[in-house]
Each structure stands twice: as C-alpha cells, then as structure tokens.
Write a structure and sequence with these properties.
CATH architecture of the largest domain: 3-Layer(aba) Sandwich
Distance between the termini: 54 Å
Number of strands: 15
Structural class: alpha/beta
Oligomer: single chain
Order of helices and strands: EHEEHEHEHEEEEEHEHEHHEHEHHHHEH
CATH class of the largest domain: Alpha Beta
CATH superfamily of the largest domain: HUPs
C-alpha cells in the first residue's frame, strides 16, 4: 500500500467535448511546476493521480496549491488488492488514527465490473469500523468522511480533501497583457485573470527620473509574485517620461490623467498585438478614484477597440486588500515609491471628461512620434534575474 496524490478537476468537469484539452494543459502545467521533483502522472476523464516519492509528498502538495485548474488535492492510500477484506482492513487502520467520534463511508465504484455495489460496500466497511472502534455513524453531518474509490487500476482510500485554487489551467484561454502598476489593485486583477486560464504578460510605464528605480523594482517583485501562478510571463517596461511631460506642458492639466491613460492604452494595444495578447487587463474598480468613473472609462476606452478586462470592476477596496494579502502582494504594493500614475496629478482632476473637449485638446500636439518611440524602445525585463543584476 502506498500514498498517491489524487487531483479533483472541479470546474473542468463542466467542459464536455473540450475537457481533454483542459486536462492536457493542466497536466503540462503540473509537470512544469514540479520539474524539480520525481513523480509520475496518470490521468483520465475524471481524475488525475500523481505518484510521488513519498519523501517529497508534502512539498509537492504545497506546489499543487499554486496551480489553477485544481479543485481538490487528496492524499490517498492506494491498494492494488481489491479484495473486500483487504479494503475493510485498510479503512479500519486509517480510522484508528482519527480522534473524531462520527463518520460516514462514501464509496465510488467507477469499475462497474466490481461485484459489490457502492451502497453495499458502504454498509460492509461501516459495519467493520463500528465493530472494531468506538465510532458512530452520522450520515448527515459526520466529522470524518471516509472515501473509497474502486477503480480498475486499484482502490483509493482517503478522508480529507485539500482545497485547490480552482479556475482553469493557465494558457487554456490565451494570453493577455496586464497593465501592472505598483499599487494594490493591478496585481489582484492579474491574479484573478490568471485564475480564468489566461496567461499574462506584464506592462509597466515608468517616468524616470520622476519615478525611481525602487518603483521599478517594486513592480518586478509584484510580477514575480504573480509568476508563482502564471507561466513564463514577460515584463515589458515603457519609458513614458516624454509623453507625460509633453501632456503636462501642452494640454489642459485638469484632463491630465485622462490624456495620460489614453496614451497608455494606445501603447498597450500595440504591445498587446506585438506579443499576441488577446486582451488588455487593468485593476480599475468602478468609482474608486476620479479616473474610474464610467464617463472617464468611456473617454479612455475611446482610443482602442481592443478588449479591456477589468476583473475588479465591482470589488470594494477591502475585498481587493484581502486578496492582495492572500497572494502576498500587499506588503510590496504599499511600499512608498511613486509610479507614473501618481506624479503630475492635478489638484482637481476632471471626473466627467468631455470627449469633444478631449479631441480639441489633442489636436494641439501630434503625439505619434512619441508613442512610436516609446513602443520601439520598450525594454524586456528578465523576471528570473536578481534585481541587483538589473540596476
């Protein structure tokens, strides 16, 4: 008898004709994540089994908890001997390790050739445990649920399921470009997007010397935190200084944020197309700040037809903060280094920008060459390098 890790698919089971595609990608993601471990994987339409080196089992489980597409992680006892007496005794020995008082047996018989049906097997195992322990049966609210899965390749017995992240395996739904600032919101938006099976690339706008190298390093660390869940993302850095200074000098300063974000989206669209990203993602939450009113969002979106995903649009700030703490980005996000979205901020920014006024103002200066320059000089940061090597 040995320990194996049983993977429950969860939301993947809602997929019908495409389920094999999602399972194949999940399997690939698991192999990538566990590349430093020794293990085998067996998968089918309903379950996936990881056969680990038992010395590495706990470390493998911790890694699996970082992989989207996994609903539940189970450490199960596998026995190749499907004789009913053997199954009874394995179940009894497992229950003797428990301190609880009530239990319930749940048998899943995927091998329909097995001569004892699920209900009868529940009764046989339950009676054996009652006879040899002080446990009592509680079919409605048991303290221990003893699961027995009878399959052609073996019998798997377990009593606890560790929650996985759920969602879809990364890369099953294409790639998107996350506008990653140094704040709290955008890393959370990125995390929630990855959860839906979307691979992320990251886009950061900096305005050196108005923004510092510490601000850049902060974003690098946030991207690295997201890479724990993502697969092979790239961080693209845009020098936004000339554009931002020109907007400040040439255009209506009360609209500064609107003009700035319009240029960001123009650049983001071109970067997204270059790297085959199917959408742009940001951390906007409706009404949270002046630039996130519906009229401001409309004015900014006006420059692009590209899909814009806003996973946080209906979240309040406390919800966002709670998730940022769960994914370990909060303490980085609150480091006091300004990004380009917090410099040159007008004292009274317009909250309901007028598109006609925007068009008239933007006629005052042709930003084409500045946008071209920013895109052509985009810098790729290797997220695997040490920060000291990037300075």
């Amino acid at each position: 008898m040995k320990k194996v890790i049983l993977i429950k698919y969860g939301e993947l089971t809602t997929k019908k004709d495409n389920r094999k595609f999602f399972i194949k990608q999940l399997k690939k993601n698991i192999f990538d994540k566990l590349s430093s471990f020794s293990f085998d994987i067996i998968d089918d339409y309903y379950r996936m089994f990881i056969i680990p080196n038992e010395d590495e089992l706990e470390e493998i489980v911790l890694k699996l908890k970082e992989i989207f597409g996994i609903h539940g992680i189970v450490i199960a006892y596998e026995t190749q001997d499907n004789d009913v007496e053997n199954i009874k005794n394995v179940c009894l020995n497992l229950m003797k390790e428990k301190n609880e008082k009530t239990f319930k047996v749940i048998t899943h018989r995927s091998d329909k050739s097995y001569p004892i049906d699920s209900m009868k097997m529940n009764n046989i195992i339950g009676a054996h445990i009652l006879k040899n322990t002080n446990f009592k049966v509680d079919v409605h609210n048991p303290e221990v649920e003893l699961n027995v899965e009878i399959r052609r390749e073996g019998v798997y017995i377990y009593n606890e399921t560790i929650s996985g992240l759920g969602g879809y395996p990364v890369s099953t739904l294409g790639r998107a470009l996350l506008m990653l600032s140094g704040g709290i919101d955008s890393p959370v938006a990125g995390y929630l997007t990855i959860k839906r099976g979307v691979e992320l690339y990251y886009l950061y706008f900096e305005s050196r010397p108005h923004t510092s190298i510490e601000a850049r390093n902060k974003v690098i660390e946030l991207a690295r935190k997201l890479e724990k869940y993502n697969t092979h993302g790239k961080l693209i850095v845009i020098n936004f200084t000339k554009i931002q200074e020109t907007i400040y000098k040439e255009l209506d300063q009360t609209y500064l944020i609107t003009f700035m974000r319009r240029k960001m989206y123009q650049i983001a669209e071109r970067i997204a197309k270059k790297y085959k990203c199917l959408a742009i993602v940001n951390g906007e939450s409706v009404g949270q700040v002046a630039s996130q009113t519906l009229s401001s969002i409309l004015a900014v979106n006006d420059v692009t037809n590209y899909p814009i995903l806003r996973p946080l649009c209906s979240f309040d700030k406390l919800d966002i903060i709670n998730i940022s703490k769960q994914i370990d980005t909060y303490d980085i996000s609150i480091l006091p280094y300004e990004d380009c979205c917090t410099v040159f901020v007008p004292r009274h920014p317009v909250i309901n920008p007028n598109l006609k006024h925007i068009y008239e103002e933007e006629k005052k200066y042709d930003f084409t060459s500045l946008v071209d320059e920013a895109v052509n000089n985009a810098e790729i940061v290797d997220l695997k390098e040490k920060i000291s090597d990037l300075l």
